[in-house]
Fold each of these.
Amino acid sequence: MSDTTAAEAKPEPVVVDRFCTLTYTDRLSPPTVRFADALLAGNFVGQKCPVCGRVYLPGKGYCPIDVVKMDERNEVPVADQGTVTGFTIITPVRYYGQTKTEPFIYASVLLDGASSVLGGQEITGIPNDQVRVGLRVRAVWKPEAERTLEGHSPRGWGSVEGSIDTFEWTGGPDAARETYEEFVI
């Protein structure tokens, strides 16, 4: 048997079995702040590249294609109606904190006037088995007093969940394929 000194002895790991919450606070870029402010006012605003004409939603402060810096002078309004370019039917698995119990749709929506899609948007107003690429949808805005900046981040994905409840089927005909085919995922 060998003697071990206190320095060589390894303490047992401590395991804490408790739920905890981590809250991160990030500074938002100026284009993200303007995008968020527009959402709070019930509007979408994107940035239009002066070279290629692409409209980024939310604005990035630059065009990644043409490497052109953009600012508030490049901002343009974007409609709150658009086209589903891809979707997934999600069947919730029960876990702690799960609030949804019935299948629902998350879709990518190409808003009219934009050149980039908003991903992860819930689609309502139509049975799940009738949702399709090309479906025309519109934003269902939360009441102005209930809109928040929940989910906004400097990471650039432009969350709208604090201002929009869902996107619902317009009831109209599908969009022409050539208007959205480059955005199908």
Amino acid sequence: MVDFAALAAPFPKDAVSWRAQSISKKDDGSYSALALAYIDARDVMNRLDDVCGVAGWQCKYSHANGKTVCDIGIKCLIDLVSHEWIWKADGAGDSDIEAEKGALSDAFKRAAVRWGIGRYLYSLDAVWVPCKAKEWNGKPQWQSWVVDPWTKVKPEQRAGFETARKQNGKWEIIADELRAVGTEAELAVIWKKYQPELTVFQRSDAEIFKQLQDIKDNMKLDLMQMVGMPQGFNEIGRA
């Protein structure tokens, strides 16, 4: 079985980079930029290799409406003996630098977010960070950060990453296991396995078990919505 919590685990701090989305010039002539966190596509590949194995994942590319689309497939355990390739996809347009290469990389990273990889970064508020910039054709061009952007991130957000990552990762695991359930007995096994997590919502065993049945019968409903879990990391992230 794929360890989805390991896929969604935070990356080392030095693996996270920051890009300037927009730049503002202050009255005193100094600059600041809106900093957005991102990870490198190679780090995503290494994470997939480490968690899924080099033969446990694959990707493919296509084009739709002028955008590059990446599909990432992971070999998932469907029952106790068989596996099936499960695919999740996302797309991106050309980037400002090395357009075709940038589109491939961005689409790949966005598809990886669908699997939880690096998703925790996108709960960060965008922060304005002092930077060095150079004027080019009347517009400021980012050169470097004056201070580490991490220092501008709210302390409560930094402290909450690990807890939120574990919670959201657990709900994704439960949802994936429910998709493979075919009998009441199998459903009861899932309920027993995750009872401590589910009963935290102050519902009776019978009420939660009924919710699990409803989810099993209609997987269009999101598990986190059914049990009341805040959906902190469900937006499509920045690549």
